[in-house]
């Protein structure tokens, strides 16, 4: 690969390809957590728990309710519906490729998938299940005992809340969506992206979207200020005025499948979301052509969905 | 097979095997509906619809919510939780092997799977989705159009409520659970059932359970009087006093996975359910041994669960 092309004054497609090598990356595998190494036994258990509505106090809400794997890991609602049919305050981010992030939740109040998973189980408006009751419920289902023993070998009392979320996180690390058109393009298939999508990618880089949306998940995962709506974002838990309206940068993988958009789900279409992001975050007014090009690029980010068989849950 | 053994006065195991050939049958395939022949395209579409929460007015409840294929086609609740977190009046019967029945719902108010599927979608306390709105919602998801065109070829306007339920019913006809221990036993594997389960099967026949619980689904599917609780059963829609407390005979396939039991989900354990059924329906007081034997037999009715991959639903 030639180096130094970026010193040229005009930004041709070829030169932007050079830039792009730094901004984008293919999805290969999710990063591991050294404190919770993935094993097939943990993934299998985590899959059961992810789909098990008995982890909720009502017995009808599972992780999969709001992170529906048939709907690209979301619920396609502006904000989710949880325990007692309460509306949650924010839009459910996709679980697909969530393993690429350290900051979890829109407001970054959890670090890593394990800590994240503790939230919705216990949240009164989501699964409404206190941690000790979750452990008690799972322990009462004898069929789970062997799964926990296999997933956490050598532990005397493996059914703990920490192990429940470790298993769920291990399963979530398998929920990645490789081989979308961008991935194939980056690997050298120059026809994988349409000419319009390539133009969109170039505009995306040129106007600065890649300053936040880069890397394999097309997100730095950082907390960034986004002045939209009344939600205080990170300040809602730090109570620090400097964190006002800071939100975790979202992944753009599969973004065309995960509307409505933003933390409050207030925006229906990708076209509108792109226009707003350019204006609010970059002070840039997109032309209709630029907007449509970027949307064409974003639509190329639909990867291979994880193939997940509905697990047969332990009955008793 | 020897004929005429049943003329003997004592009921030995061998003789009961003769009787059993008449009472039981293996599960091979669900009966077809000539008005809705199964095709792979219809099954594929039906699977999408079965899992699609957008068929509910809230967007979070799908057929699979109450008929969870990970929980043997039920929700494992006494009575279901539906729209607005309302409790439904009755226990959700399993969708597994439901195709064997003409009478549908506990009170038999629908005939066949197609008519059944119309109920929960529209019921205010379940999915709360008027038929015309369901059609409108599905039509608004362009990705569905091709699926309907393939499933109902030659139809000018294939996205209709009738076709929605036809597709769901076609998928449901694939949800059968063959090759349980009884099936293998009936095919000649005399070790498939434990000695206790065989004793239980014989008691089951001897005291008359098979007068209602026979055939491949271990249910005649008929409406029978069961005087339990305050639910008027079939009379709730016929308003005929003669239908008071008549309920559809339930399948016993996978029954150990589908508690709590009865139309009101009032009974937690299979042991208790068996004791009550013998007493109330047959006037027979089971000894502890007989009860445990029958339960061992019923536990042998767990078949091969359908392998269903979480479908990728059309996004827009």
TrEMBL record, chains A, B:
Residues engaged in binding heme c 1: 63, 66-67, 83
Keywords per UniProt: Electron transport, Heme, Iron, Metal-binding, Oxidoreductase, Periplasm, Peroxidase, Signal, Transport
Free-text description of this protein's post-translational modifications in UniProt: Binds 2 heme groups per subunit.
Residues noted as binding heme c 2 in the record, renumbered to the chain: 209, 212-213, 277
Subcellular location: Periplasm
Main location: periplasm
A cellular component annotation (GO) from this entry: periplasmic space
InterPro entries on file: Cyt_c-like_dom, Cyt_c-like_dom_sf, Cytochrome_c_Peroxidase/MauG, Di-haem_cyt_c_peroxidsae, MauG/Cytc_peroxidase
A Pfam family per the record: CCP_MauG
Pathway named in the protein's UniProt entry: One-carbon metabolism; methylamine degradation
Source domain of life: Bacteria
Named cofactor requirement(s): heme
UniProt GO molecular function: cytochrome-c peroxidase activity; electron transfer activity; heme binding; metal ion binding
Textual note on the cofactor: Binds 2 heme groups.
Ranges where the Cytochrome c domain occurs: 41-172, 195-302
Protein function: Involved in methylamine metabolism. Essential for the maturation of the beta subunit of MADH, presumably via a step in the biosynthesis of tryptophan tryptophylquinone (TTQ), the cofactor of MADH.
PANTHER family: CYTOCHROME C PEROXIDASE-RELATED (PTHR30600)
Official protein name in the record: Methylamine utilization protein MauG
């Amino acid at each position: 690969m030639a180096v130094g092309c970026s010193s040229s004054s005009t930004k041709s497609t070829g030169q932007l390809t050079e830039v792009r090598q730094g901004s984008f990356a293919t999805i290969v595998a999710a990063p591991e957590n050294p404190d919770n190494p993935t094993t097939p036994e943990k993934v299998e258990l985590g899959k059961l728990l992810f789909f098990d509505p008995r982890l909720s106090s009502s017995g009808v809400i599972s992780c999969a309710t709001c992170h529906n794997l048939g709907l690209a890991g979301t619920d396609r609602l502006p904000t989710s519906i949880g325990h007692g049919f309460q509306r949650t305050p924010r839009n459910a981010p996709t679980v697909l490729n969530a393993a690429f992030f350290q900051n979890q939740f829109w407001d970054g109040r959890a670090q890593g998938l394990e800590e994240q998973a503790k939230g919705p189980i216990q949240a009164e408006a989501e699964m409404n299940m206190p941690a000790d009751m979750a452990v008690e419920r799972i322990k009462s289902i004898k069929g789970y005992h062997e799964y926990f023993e296999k997933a956490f070998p050598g532990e005397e009392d493996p059914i703990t809340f920490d192990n429940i979320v470790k298993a769920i996180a291990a399963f979530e690390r398998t929920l990645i969506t490789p081989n979308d058109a961008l991935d194939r393009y980056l690997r050298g298939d120059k026809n994988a992206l349409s000419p319009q999508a390539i133009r969109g990618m170039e505009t995306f880089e040129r106007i600065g979207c890649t300053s936040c949306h880069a890397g394999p998940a097309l997100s730095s995962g950082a907390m960034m200020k986004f002045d939209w709506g009344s939600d205080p974002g990170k300040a809602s838990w730090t109570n620090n005025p400097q964190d006002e309206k800071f939100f975790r940068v979202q992944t753009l993988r599969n973004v065309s499948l995960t509307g409505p958009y933003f933390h409050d789900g207030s925006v229906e279409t990708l076209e509108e979301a792109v226009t707003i992001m350019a204006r609010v975050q970059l002070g840039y007014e997109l032309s209709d052509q630029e907007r449509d090009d970027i949307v064409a690029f974003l639509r190329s980010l639909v990867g291979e969905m994880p193939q997940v068989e509905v697990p047969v849950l332990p009955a008793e």
